[in-house]
Sequence to fold (169 residues):
Amino acid sequence: MAILPIRTFPDPVLRNICSKAEPATDFIRKLAGDLLETMYNAPGIGLAAPQVGECVRMVVLDITGSTGDEVPYFLLNPEIVHSEGSISFEEGCLSFPELSVEIDRANTVRVIFQDLEGTPVTLEADGLLAVAIQHELDHLEGRVIMDYASPVRRDLYRRKVRKILAQEA
Ligand code: ZN
Fold:
């Protein structure tokens, strides 16, 4: 496993629509391990493949963080087939440092996906795990938390990042 650099705004890879992940391949097994290690190291509770520059439909999640009793989920080609209720949560994203946006999501979701070896799995999630799943699945469609912010906040964030990048140059 390796810690990969996390792509941040305005990297265009974050806007790509990802292609299908091929289960039971060395590429996916290795990427899964790297994603997990990168997520724990960040630290974060979810990471999607495009956030490390690989535009395939795979996300890793672990809402326990790296507390020692990890419960990681690897979701390949995930699809939300049912959602209900609503929950509002102040979300951050490893690809958008220093940005947090309050987002309304479904409180309960049922998601179908394949595990790393291609076995179909159905998962019912609510609360924080449901929020994290919806957040990560957005990444696979090129959708990011900035899209949920008001135009004014989007503009402020763009300017802030531009300033930081100018200072680094
Ligand atoms: Zn994110």
